[in-house]
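Lab notebook: predicted structure, single chain.

Context: the supervisor wants predicted structures on file for every construct in the current expression panel, including those that have not yet been purified. This is the next one on the list. No modifications to the sequence; it matches the entry in the shared construct table.
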Amino acid sequence: MGSAGVRPRAPHAPTAMATDNPASTTVVRRTPAPLVDPAPLWNPAGDRSSLSVQAEDRQSVAMLRLELGSADLCQVRFADRLHPVGMTMMASQALRDSTGSVLVPSLAERAASARAGGEARAATATLRHLLPARGRLPDFLTPFGGSESVTAGLEAIRATASWRIRAEVTAAYADVAATPLRRRFAAADPEALDLFGQAVDTWFGTVLKPHWSELTSAHRQQVTGAAQRLALGGLAGLFAGLHPAIRWRPPVLEVRTWWSGELTGTGHGLLLLPTPLAGPLPRVLVEPGHPVLLVYPVPMPHHGAAPTAGALGRLLGVTRAGVLRRLAESGELSTTALADAAGVSLSSASEHATALRAAGLITSDRRGGAVGHRLTPLGAHLLGQVPATAVDAPSPAGPRPAHLP
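Prediction complete. Output recorded below exactly as produced.
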């Protein structure tokens, strides 16, 4: 899951806020002021802190191989609720680009409004400044405890050892601008953590809370559908229908996610968490003493009519929306046929297919020298062709490598 921050200060306490210039961001005791988006790279003056890791443009899709033992497979289960702070962390990251926004257009609009002005503007800017733009989040921001409320989640994060905060923030930060606020956050500075906690609390209340019942409904629908698959097809049937980026090769669960590796289970089981806020790819958290947590993206429950061509175009871009509709009409198209149908070059069609596949909206299968593309159940759901519960159906071809054209 994902979460972050700390308990907000009492009303009478001075408020820790950020300055307007991210290059000189610091925590001061004064009235709130908005924090603008930081520069994406290290500044030319070479102001580098000890923070290091992958830059955003190097946060590429990778393959994680998780070997599950009998003790883990005997304890495969679903999370019984969404984690408010965890959902805030993932949503604030996922809604920064169109691939994450596709699953939750209503939330994407609300997040855009929050960023544009109002009470949540400073909270949005703080989260965008302190969290990586995409990819893996620091694990301490995804605590297992504190799922009862935002306050409980922030307290769980506040209890994290400072050495762990520094290690994980260092591993999550990339070649981004080193600012005083980022350094203090990495050092587990109490005021920086308080500022972060206030931002989480405000952003949740503004963006997620009005849609919390819908998010909870999406989670419950997916759990219900998965229980049916488990009853009819066993674990293989369950895993086959989770997401195109998840593949079961006994005893290994392969997950296309933001980091690579070969791991073994913890012996405490596998905890599954479907949510529209996971982002374009599944997320995996492995922590000793706890079950392996696998968070994977699902659509919001479908209500009302399918999105119009104009609305879908604004979300995905006109060309990619057109590609989805062409696939819906044709069933399957090669990359060449897709380029002809969309009126774009072959290389451009390949790029669009890669983006749509990464978002879980299409699946691709190589046959000889050609690659065929088809809608996933999620893609069909986005076009209004299937109800939300049908998205549980497994993709016949399974997940596809990210390098396919």
